[in-house]
Write a structure and sequence with these properties.
single chain, 3-stranded antiparallel β-sheet, 30% strand
Length: 227
């Protein structure tokens, strides 16, 4: 079960997702205004990404701006921009690594002794959001280990207060895509909304008429029909 927001002003319990990964990272980076490594600069309301000229391509610049909404389209847009962000950061890290090597500093690890007794937790960023690992060590061995991936947060069911999980909250009350023409476009289909949080998740859509009668069931593997 994922955590929930509690709005003390209204007493409402609200769905809390892991940010959909890239959109949360870019959003927080933009607002903080702390990153400035040449190839990447946070401005306070955007993230500027710069690529140098190469043998075949000119110097290139991108700018991701904080959107008005957090929705399926913006999560997918942020995921594309984050590929450029990761590439620019990777170039910066490679240059720093070369400086270390040329200076004769080639050490890449430090000795570590497994403790006899320990409780530990590590937080990381996966493609789809926050990922944590929890481990208990007894007698120098793993006694209990539990990963808590973002999918468990985002795909969880309603809680005791009736608050929907992030996926359900994102798609409920969405007009069916085919019922709206381009001039009245309001919604986006369920699978695209779910995959905007988690592109690796196989999912299925079940259409019910009520009283347990199934109209249609469709399943989609995570890499597509021919993946």
């Amino acid at each position: 079960m994922s955590p929930r927001w509690l709005d003390k002003r209204t007493g409402d319990h609200l769905a809390l997702d892991t940010g959909g990964g890239p959109i949360a990272r870019l959003w927080s980076t933009a607002l903080s205004g702390l990153v400035d490594i040449g190839y990447i600069k946070a401005t306070g309301n955007s993230v500027i990404i710069n690529f140098p000229k190469t043998a075949t391509l000119p110097e290139t610049h991108f700018e991701w701006k904080i959107p008005k909404w957090s929705n399926a389209i913006e999560r997918d847009r942020a995921r594309t921009y984050f590929q450029a962000y990761a590439a620019a950061a990777g170039l910066y890290f490679c240059e720093k690594a070369m400086q270390e090597l040329l200076a004769g500093r080639s050490k890449t690890w430090a000795p570590f002794k497994v403790p006899e007794e320990a409780i530990s937790c590590g937080f990381h960023e996966a493609v789809r959001g926050v990922l944590s690992h929890h481990v208990v060590i007894r007698d120098g061995k793993i006694a209990n280990y539990h990963p808590y991936p973002p999918t468990c947060w985002n795909a969880n069911p309603r809680d005791v207060y009736g608050t929907p999980g992030p996926y359900e909250d994102a798609v409920q009350n969405t007009p069916i895509f085919e019922e709206n023409g381009p001039d009245k476009f309001k919604g986006i289909d369920i699978m695209r909304a779910v995959r905007s949080f988690d592109p690796c998740l196989p999912c299925g859509v079940h259409m019910f008429l009520g009283n347990g009668k199934v109209l249609e069931t469709r399943h989609s593997p995570m890499f597509g029909v021919n993946g």
